[in-house]
Structure formats: C-alpha cells, structure tokens
Amino acid sequence: MRKKVLLKFLSLATIGLLSVSIASAQMDDPVRWSATTKKVEANKFEVIINAQIDEGWHLYSTKLPEGGPLPTTFTFDNPQGYRLIGELKEITKSKTEHDEVFNLDLAYFEDEAKFSQLIEVTANEANININVEFQACYADKCIYLEKSMSTVAKADAKVSKDEQEVTTDNSELVETDKLSPDKIKEKKASEEVPAEESPKEEESMWWFFLVSFAAGLAGLLTPCVFPMIPMTVSFFMGKQQNRANAILNAFVFGVSIVAIYTSLGLLVSLFNLGSDFANTLTSHWITNTIFFLLFIAFAASFFGLFEIVLPGNLANKTDSKADRGGLIGSFFLALTTVIVSLSCVGPIVGALLVEAASGLGAKPIIGMFGFSLAFSIPFTLFAIFPSWLNSLPRSGGWMNSVKVFLGFIVLAFSLKFILTIDQGYQLDLVSREGYIAIWMSIFTLLGLYLLGKIKFKFDSDLQHVGVFRLFLAIASFAFVFYLLPGLFGAPLKTISGLLPPESSQSFNMASNANVNVVVNADDRNSLCDEPKYADFLHLPHGLQGYFDYEQALNCAREKKKPLFIDFVGHTCANCKVMESQVWSDPRVLERLRRDYIIVALYVDDRTELPESEWITSERDGKVKKTIGKINADFQATRFNVNGQPYYVLLDNDEKPLIEPKGYDLDVEAFIEFLDKGVEEFNKRMN
User: Fold this and answer.
1) DSSP letters spanning 536-594
2) Is residue 315 within 8 Å of residue 334, measured between CB atoms?
3) Among 504, 379, 368, which Cα is nearest to 432's?
4) For residues 374 and 371, what is the distance between their CA atoms, to the nearest angstrom?
5) In whole angstroms, what is the distance from residue 207 CA to residue 564 CA?
6) Which of 31, 125, 485, 575 gives a 20 to 30 Å CA spacing to 442?
7) 132 phi and psi angles, rounded to 5 deg
8) Is the pTM of this model over 0.70?
9) Are 282 and 649 in contact (CB under 8 A)?
10) In Å, how far from its chain's centre is CA 266?
C-alpha cells in the first residue's frame, strides 16, 4: 500500500514539474530571431536570419506539404533601396520525421536554424525589415507567433575577395572551400551574434550556486533552525513503524524542503518579464526602500529589540497536518520547518533572490536550489543516522551570538539598497568615504562584540573567548583596517562592486598623481563634438567618450576608428568591479584612449527623453521613453543579451569585429580582446 502511495506521490510530482516547465517555457518566446547582412559583391548582400530555439521546442521548415502544420514564412516588408534575388534558402539542415497526427513527413529544426536571402542594393543604404510567421511546438503543444526584425545593408562597404564565402551565379548561394578552417572560424566569430550563455556566465552560475549553498549552511546555525534538527529527527524515529519507513519519510521530508524553497526561485523565473522587470526590481526606489526597511527590521530583531513572529495560525495548521504521519505528514512537517525558519533565514533568502533577479533566467532557481539543498541535508542525514545527534553541540548562548553576528552582517548589507537608490536616481547623497565610514563602524562594533566587550539583551556571560571567535574578531578588525585607506581615495579593488564609485569621493589624496584620473588635451581631442548627457553621465578614470549610440557611431566613422560599446548600469556591481580591476590597468586605458571611440550605454538610467526621441520596441511592442529603457532594448534586440557589463566592438558598418565580451577580470584577456578588435578593424579598412 505504501509503495502505491509513494509511486502516486512521485508521479504527481513529476507531472507537476513537467507542467511547470512547459508553463515556464511559454512565458518567454521559445524562438529568438536576429538578422545580419554580409556583402558578397559590389552591391549584393546575403541577409542571414538566425533563430535560436529553446531546448525541447522545434520550428517547422519553410517547405512543408499541403495539409500539414504552418510552415515558417518570411516576408520582406515594403522593400525600398533593394530587391530580392532568387528564393530564401535554408542554411541549417532540417530533420524529417513522420507525424502521426497529419500522417505526413514533416521537416523541422531544433536548437538553431539559419536562413539566407540574396539581395541587390539599389541605393547607398537599405533598411531591411523582415516579418516572420511561424509555429513553435513543444511535445504535443504548439503556439503560433509572429515576429519582426531588421538589419541594414550599405553598398559602399569594402570586402576583399578572399573574404567572400558565397558566390551568386544563377542566384544560387554556394559555399566555397577557399577559406581555411581557422579563417572560417574567425569570420563566424566576427559576424555572428553570440548566444546568451557564455562559459564565463556558466562559471558565474556555479559560483552563485556555491554561495547559495554556503548561505544554506549558515542558515542552519540560527536559533530558529538549529534546535529543530533533533526535534525533527525524533519525529521520524518515534512515529514510524520501522527504520526503513523512517528513512523513507526523512528522504521525502528533505526533498520537500528543496521543492518548497526552489519553488520561490521558480516563481521569480516564471514571472520574468524581461530585462525591464529585472531593472525595475533591482533599481526602483520603492523595492529598494522596502528591502532596506526589512533588513533594518531583521537586524534590530537579531540584536534583541523585538521578536519577529510569523502568523501562528499558519504554522499551527501545517503542524497539525504533519502529526498525521506518512508521506503527506513528512511534506507538511517540511512546510512547517520552512515557515518557522523564515523568521531567521528571511534576510538570507531575500538577499539571494534580489541578487538572482539581476540575472533572471535560471538563476533564481539555482540560488534557491543551492540554499535549500544545504539546508535540508543535515535534517535528512541525522534522520537516517540518528546516532550522529550525540556529536551535535547543545543549544545555548552561542546560538544567540550567531544571531547577533548575522545582525551585524544584515545591517551592513542593508546599506546596499540605499546605495542603489542613490546611484540609480543620481541623487549624489551618499559619498564614498561616508559609506566606508559606516562600514568601518559596523565591523569595529562586530569585532568588539566577538571579544565580549559589547553585550546584547539575550547574550549569556562570556567566560572566555574561543579560538574560532577570536579568529572572527581578527578578521573583522583586519577588514576595518583594509577599509581605512579608502577614506583617502584608495580604490579598494576587491570590494569595489559593493561601494559607491570613486567619482563620489570628495577627498582623494592621490587625485593629482593618479594616472587613472588624468584628462589631457589628447583625450578631449579624440571626440568630434560635445557628448550628449555628459552633464550627468561620466566614464571612469578620466576617459572621454559618448553616451548616445548614434552620436558615437558618427564620430567613429569620422575618425575612422572602431566603436567600443560599454553596456553598463548605475547599479551594476560587476561593472564597477571591471572598471576598478581591469579598466584601471594603464595598458587597457592606453588602448581605450588611443584606438577606440567609447560609448557607455546605461541600461538603467531613468532620464526621460523628449517625445520625438521615444521609440517603439520591435521586441515587445512597448514605447521606450527613457535613456535606460532605449539602451536596454537596443542591447536585447541587437545582441540578444540583457546582462551587464557587456562589451561590443563594432566597425564603421556596425558589424561586430570579434565576439563580444562580458564580465571577466583577466586583464590580459581584455587587452587581447581590444588588440584583436583593432587588428580586425584594420583588415576591413584596407
């Protein structure tokens, strides 16, 4: 009987997860489209259309038999300045399977599909607007979608003969074998838009998982959670028929904790409304004010000012259902554990979700999974091996010390939300030295508390200072001394992402001697005209550049230099880390000043533009009114990426020189990135 119940439980869980996965996939477009052009003759271009298809989905071919599903159909809207040559071709080889529903052999694509159309440009420049109608299917579910994209072809672009990959005899596109594999790989890297996920981003995900896992372990030491471990284990051992039954229920208990916490991350992912949602959540003054007040309340509670108690009825109801025992009882015991523990681990969970929102996608799920996995493992292991309970330290005054310790950390972290408001709205109320001074005070008090010089309401008398406590006190005071030079202008590179920018420093002893902030005449002369928005937007280290794409592109063409695009945000911590640890290198600064026209496109700037400069997004159809929303839409539409920092090198025809680059603290790799961009630009200009 119990096996049947277990099988039914696992079956329902599996069906639920599949349903949620399908629903999650349907929240976003399962197919993302982009278009680029490549010159093949004096006035003939190949329009390459690329479709990135989500895992599990498929896209039908452009050629399907009658009586079947909707084929993928492309329409070139109102061609002006160009004409179509021949028919649209499928570059990617499709798969063919027999469909039982239509009783037909149907061709389709998975993961990626590429199409090409040859055109002849009859003007100096042609804007190519393409509409695609398609049917995307996941298992037995299909949806109909229509999308638009655009690209530009310029007849005066220069292309050497040995770079041409296609010929146009009889209007057919034929690949040539004249290029070496290395050359083909180089061209693909320079002309194609990279996928959203890069190895560095995957590595970042792993780090976020490890941080979340460590946070889960820290949550176990809180007074709301630690005493529940022996209580929970006694529940399994006291109310079960045998040990095997207890182990089974303990396993279900642990899995349920993971499922409950992970569902919080899943909800954030399900309601992902795109980069606009992420920017709103992480930079809006309302959400940041709420988080700041919540963290202050948690800190005050941890210090003993008051007790945070969740609604008693909620915990009582779940606890009464847990008393029933069995698999259902194990689930409700897990739910009770989660509810009770939130009064202590709430700040940790909240911080992880806020951090995850900056990446969205799978990041909230990964964060909550890592946290809940670490959180649930001890409960499950002690239930399986109850004799291990004897090795656990007893609850006591040390647990309140853990709580107070977390209170200091939460208090320091709460200032991040005030900093986000100040930077996002450019209030300039928080100076760098003032912020550092507050942190120095907090960690000095933490060190004194660890040494027993400060005592809070529920603390026990400290008879002696333990070794571990002493090491923590040393670390706290060492951090204070590390912060001290920051009061006088030191960059503090290792934590630069958590601090206000150096430009907010009102007193800097090294400002006159530091090469990073010197602005000379050559820097100013590198620009063609006065940059728009330069009265409130600035580049780091005294660099000179633009903050409007079109203005920067025009200057790059006039100066015959490549364009360096920096997709950045006022509240982007990783952007500040890159500027502090990579851009500050003299070799990087020299190359940026000498070789490039720089444009910093802030994706979270809230300055509203005149109505004449508003745009309607081709991606979501919404009107973009602010600098930030226009730049964010440009990044997502043109490069299919919404994360920052993101660096793109373009030639004067707005084509990528090499593969764009994201967050990477390897200075040598960044120098190589800049040098390769210049090398490729010079090849195209010759």
Assistant:
1) T---GGG---BSSHHHHHHHHHHHT--EEEEEE-TT-HHHHHHIIIIITSHHHHHHHHH
2) no
3) 504
4) 6
5) 29
6) 575
7) -125, 130
8) no
9) no
10) 15
Most confident of 243-252, 294-303, 304-313, 467-476: 467-476
pLDDT tens figures, 586-619: 999 999 999 999 999 998 888 899 999 999 888 7
What's the number of CA atoms in the CB half-sphere (13 Å) around residue 651?
23
Does residue 473 surpass a pLDDT of 80? yes
Cis peptide before 645 (omega within 30 of 0): yes
Q: Decide if 392 contacts 230 (C-beta within 8 A).
A: yes
Decide: 605 and 571 in contact? Cβ < 8 Å: no
Taking the CB of residue 55, how many other CB atoms lie within 10 A of it? Answer: 9
pLDDT at 679: 94
**Most distant CA pair in the chain, distance:** 92
Q: Are 650 and 677 in contact (CB under 8 A)?
A: no
Kindly give, in sequence order, each residue whose CB lies less than 8 Å from that of residue 224, ignoring residues fewer than 6 positions away.
340, 341, 343, 344, 345
- Rounded to an integer, what distance in angstroms lies between the CA atom of residue 362 and that of residue 646? 19
Cβ atoms of 38 and 46 within 8 Å: the answer is yes
Tens of pLDDT, residue by residue over 498-516, are 788 777 777 666 544 444 4
CA–CA gap between residue 472 and residue 451 (Å, rounded): 9
User: 326-357 and 228-238 are packed helices; what angle lies between their axes, rounded to 10 degrees?
Assistant: 150
User: What's the CA gap between 651 and 157, in Å, rounded?
Assistant: 11
What residues pair up with 57 in beta bridges, in sequence order?
138
Segment 326-345 shows an average pLDDT of 66
- Is-cis flag, bond preceding 364, omega within 30? no
Q: Is 225 exposed, middle or buried (0-12, 13-18, 19+ CB in 10 A)?
A: buried
Least Cα distance to 112 among 594, 640, 494 occurs for 640
Q: Answer whether 240's CB lies under 8 Å from 386's CB.
A: no
171: its two tokens: 């209007």
* DSSP track, 617-632: -TTT-PEE-BHHHHHH
Contacts (Cβ under 8 Å, ≥6 apart) of 554: 528
Percent of the chain whose pLDDT exceeds 70: 69
Q: Which residue has the higher pLDDT, 543 or 140?
A: 543
Our CA angle for 548, 554, 560, nearest 5°, is 125
Range list of H helices, 100-140: none
Q: How far apart are CA 633 and CA 622, in angstroms?
A: 10
Which residue type does 480 have? V
Determine which helix (DSSP H) or strand (DSSP E) holds 525, and give its type and residue range: helix 521-525
The CA distance from 670 to 661, in Å, is: 8
Q: What are phi and psi of 624, to 5 degrees?
A: -105, 120
CA–CA–CA angle 500, 503, 507 (5° rounding): 95
Assess contact for 496 and 576: CB atoms under 8 A.
yes
Among the residues of 358-396, which ranges form H helices? 363-384
**C-alpha span between 7 and 3 (Å, rounded):** 6
- Rounded to whole angstroms, the Cα distance separating 349 from 359 reads 16
Q: What is the CA radius of gyration of the chain?
A: 29
Question: Above 90 in pLDDT, residue 158?
Answer: no
